[in-house]
Specification:
With 156 residues, the chain is mainly α. It contains five helices and two strands, in the order ααααββα. The chain has a two-stranded antiparallel ribbon.
Length: 156
């Protein structure tokens, strides 16, 4: 076979054409791979920067909303009444807190469903914690599921 290639012009031509095509395809493939990799890397960097900028904007908006919410509550009449209520006046504390929750906290937590809890403190020793009902319901459900799974483990 090698002897036939050395002596035949036809085989030499076929070998040269094959080598030319192979080198061309290999070169084009390598060039395409390098350019595609660069484009993908550039897109990854660009999209990562966009995601980080958007996350930063969302976080800034969220912090501004929380600051505004607490500034608004701190200046509200309901909160001032809650602050002035003595720690021994349980009905007054409850009534003031219910007003704060109805007027301020519930709309805020509806707008921000990711809010897990809001805690209000007073120097007089008053303290109130708001937790959305769906979070309490989820906690109860998860606890019951966990108890059921424990019970099933004991049965097996």
């Amino acid at each position: 076979m090698i002897q036939a290639i050395r002596s035949s012009l036809e085989w030499k031509l076929i070998l040269i054409i094959f080598a030319t095509i192979f080198i061309t395809v290999t070169g084009v493939s390598t060039f395409s791979f390098i350019k595609s990799s660069e484009a993908i890397n550039n897109d990854v960097v660009r999209f990562s920067n966009q995601i980080l900028k958007q996350a930063n904007l969302n976080l800034s908006r969220y912090i501004r909303d929380n600051e505004q919410f607490f500034r608004t509550i701190s200046g509200s009449r309901e909160f001032q009444d809650w602050l002035k209520t003595g720690s021994d006046d349980h009905y007054g504390l409850f009534d003031s807190y219910q007003k704060i929750e109805t007027v301020w906290i519930a709309p805020f937590s509806t707008y921000h469903p990711e809010t897990l809890s809001i805690k209000l403190y007073n120097e007089n020793g008053n303290e109130s914690t708001y937790r959305p009902m769906f979070i309490l319901a989820q906690a109860i459900l998860l606890r019951r599921v966990g108890m059921l799974l424990d019970w099933l483990d004991l049965k097996t």
